[in-house]
Design a protein that fits this description.
Largest sheet: 8 strands, mixed, barrel
Distance between the termini: 84 Å
Helix content: 55-70%
Structural class: alpha/beta
Mean pLDDT: 86
Oligomer: single chain
Radius of gyration: 42 Å
Shape: elongated
Number of helices: 22
Number of strands: 15
Length: 649
């Protein structure tokens, strides 16, 4: 209890050491205060000079000569001159022309001292004449509020000032007759009451300023410091990079942006827990900060860090960072992947530069032994295409650049057309015809794939509606659904709305889901698939055999059609094992009540074998490449395809 009380007293008196930030804040506050106060004093002193000039020069019966006028106004001129000096200093300090804290203190003290001397001089004469010592009170208040020091300094200063001046008045003040003037007891009470009040005001202002400084310091720290690790954050990184690149003496091509990713950090979290993971990030972040102390460093997010360094020392920085990581994680193997980008000009923002370094880093993900890759021209083309795809997917959907291509599916027994698979193509006005390999993976990675897929679903339903309206046979169509589609939109609602809008039979819509999408347990996905099947949509399992979870999927889910991956058709004639596996898959599907389709059929020999072992449907270049709706209809009209009368499912 006593310790807490003493700590409170120490804090109240300002005996604790202030941070540099608090010290600078107080100096800035004193400068601002003095600027306003001295500006006001300049106005007052000019008014006083004008007042005395009017009184002794213009209103007097006998105008005063210059020496007499100067006698009555010299104190005001002196105070005016000193106030102007202080204002000039304050303005130069604010503009950064003067940075000396000591010089500022000297200027302030001299000004406050001059004010007090002026106040004491005037009040001494007023006191001798039986008047109030108002001028002293005003100047004491002025000095006390102008310069806010630590409380113990203000207490000592004001106490010595007031008691000393009181002693001076009592012992050295005489009226015109030479009689000593003594302060009345009532005035003395008021005098010391003002002393106490000034002390309390000075202490209050000091603590108010300190609290403001502490809050401001914390806000500034939060603004530039990463919450978890305490190292600089991206805001700080951006401001410092901008400052560096804005320096005309810095050559952009001599600098290098680095993006660092700690690969396999997720395993560390999974095995040791998030608390240990956070502790690891704090340690590694601060050690990385030391590695890049000659450059600009920050934590971007998660286990990602960025730095701006001298390109000539690139290898040194990377090797040190790799070694630091190797020392920090004995329990779990982790590796450092680094991407680099050297800016072409100083106009390139740090966001763009970091994105390019990150892109380069992403290209060596999961590549053992490769630590660093630098962004080059080939990557630049790929990067710009990637950014274009992300930025223009909405426009492509809206303006019809996304096209549906249909690949025929035929019965193996007679080659008649029994359906089609809907595939996406992007016919762009800038990049031309884009293959799916260029945009599907980008949209999946950026979680935008549902926009593309929803567009495809609607176009398929619209084309099917057109066929019904024109009296043609309706060709069933299978459409691809990814795991992300079920995460990013309500697939059940979307599909039911589309079939109602375009008035098409649900059984003509076949929903293809890859087995990789079902690899992890996902209750909501399973619920959605079951609901779609209940509503009358056929469910297909796509790419069977391409993943490790195939048999588990067949155990846990109910599908109408099993679509065998084309990998089994590679060198089918020479590979007896592939033939036997294919036969087993077809037989297994039949036992489970599923129909089968094999994709990637390119030879008549493969088609004959698949028909022989009982695979019902075939798809591949042997029967046709993906084509626009109009071309498909034209081929049907020309007799190249005959639509079967049998139902596909």
């Amino acid at each position: 209890m006593l310790k807490k009380f003493l700590s409170s007293i120490v804090g109240l008196l300002g005996l604790k050491k202030d941070s540099e930030y608090v010290k600078n804040h107080n100096i800035d506050a004193n400068v601002s205060s003095s600027m306003y106060n001295t500006s006001l004093m300049i106005v007052i002193e000019i008014w006083m000079i004008i007042r005395y000039t009017k009184r002794y020069v213009f209103d007097a019966e006998i105008p005063a000569d210059f020496p007499t006028w100067l006698k009555y106004t010299k104190n005001f001129w002196g105070l005016l001159f000193v106030a102007i000096i202080v204002v000039i200093y304050d303005v130069m300090y604010k503009k950064g022309k003067i940075k000396s804290r000591t010089l500022g203190n000297v200027v302030m003290i001299l000004f406050a001292g001059y004010c007090l001397i002026f106040g004491m001089y005037v009040s001494h004469h007023d006191f001798a004449a039986g008047k109030m010592i108002t001028c002293f009170f005003v100047m004491a208040l002025y000095a006390a509020c102008l310069l806010i020091w630590k409380p113990y300094v203000s207490i000592i200063f004001l106490t010595v000032l007031f008691f000393g001046y009181s002693y001076y008045l009592d012992n050295y003040t005489f009226d015109k007759e030479g009689v000593q003037v003594i302060m009345l007891s009532g005035d003395r009470v008021n005098y010391y009451t003002l002393l106490i009040t000034l002390i309390m005001i000075a202490i209050s202002i000091y603590h108010q300023r300190v609290n403001e400084a502490v809050k401001s310091e914390e806000l500034e720290r939060i603004a530039v410091e990463d919450d978890l690790t305490g190292v600089p954050n991206m805001y700080y990184f951006g401001t410092q990079c901008k400052k560096m690149m804005g320096d005309a003496a810095v050559k952009p091509s001599d600098k290098l942006y680095l993006f660092m990713n700690i690969e396999n950090f997720k395993t560390y979290n999974d095995q040791l827990g998030y608390e240990k993971g956070n502790e690891f990030l704090k340690n590694i972040a601060n050690r990385f900060k030391e590695v890049f102390k000659d450059g600009i460093f920050a934590r971007q997010s998660d286990d990602h860090f960025v730095a701006l360094v001298n390109k000539a020392k690139k290898d040194e920085y990377i090797n040190k960072a790799v070694n630091v990581l190797a020392e920090e994680h004995p329990e779990v193997y982790m590796s450092l992947k680094v991407g680099g980008y050297s800016p072409v000009n100083r106009e390139e923002t740090q966001e763009i530069c970091c994105d390019r370094a990150r892109y380069a880093c992403g290209l060596i993900k999961n590549k053992y032994g490769e630590v660093y890759r630098e962004y080059d021209k080939k990557m630049d083309e790929s990067f710009h295409l990637r950014q274009y795809i992300v930025n223009h997917i909405d426009q492509a959907v809206e303006k019809g650049y996304i096209k549906v291509y249909y690949q025929p599916v035929v019965w193996s027994k007679d080659g008649k057309l029994c359906g089609c698979e809907a595939l996406a193509r992007w016919d762009d006005p800038v990049y031309g015809f884009l293959s799916p390999g260029k945009f599907i993976s980008v949209l999946e990675e950026c979680r935008l794939i549902h926009k593309l897929d929803k567009c495809i679903y609607e176009q398929v339903c619209k084309d099917m509606h057109t066929s019904i309206k024109e009296g043609r046979k309706v060709i069933p169509v299978s459409m691809n659904f990814s795991r992300l589609d079920f995460e990013l939109m309500d697939v059940v609602q979307v599909m039911t709305s589309l079939v109602e809008k375009y008035e098409i039979p649900k059984e003509n819509i076949h929903i293809e889901v890859t087995e990789s999408a079902l690899g992890e347990k996902q209750g909501s996905l399973k619920t959605a698939l079951n609901r779609l099947r209940e509503l009358g949509f056929a469910l297909w399992l796509d790419d069977f055999g391409s993943g490790y979870s195939s048999l588990n999927v067949l155990k846990d889910y109910k599908f109408d059609v099993l679509k065998v991956d084309m990998v089994f058709l590679s060198n089918l004639q020479e590979n007896e094992s592939a033939q036997k596996i294919l036969a087993c898959i077809i037989d297994m599907a039949d036992r489970l009540g599923m129909q089968t389709l094999t994709e990637g059929v390119e030879s008549s020999q493969a088609a004959e074998y698949l028909n022989k072992i009982g695979c019902g449907r075939l798809q591949g270049y042997l029967y046709g490449k993906p084509m626009p709706y109009e071309e498909l209809i034209e081929k049907i009209r020309a007799g190249e395809f005959e639509i079967t009368d049998e139902k596909m499912c």
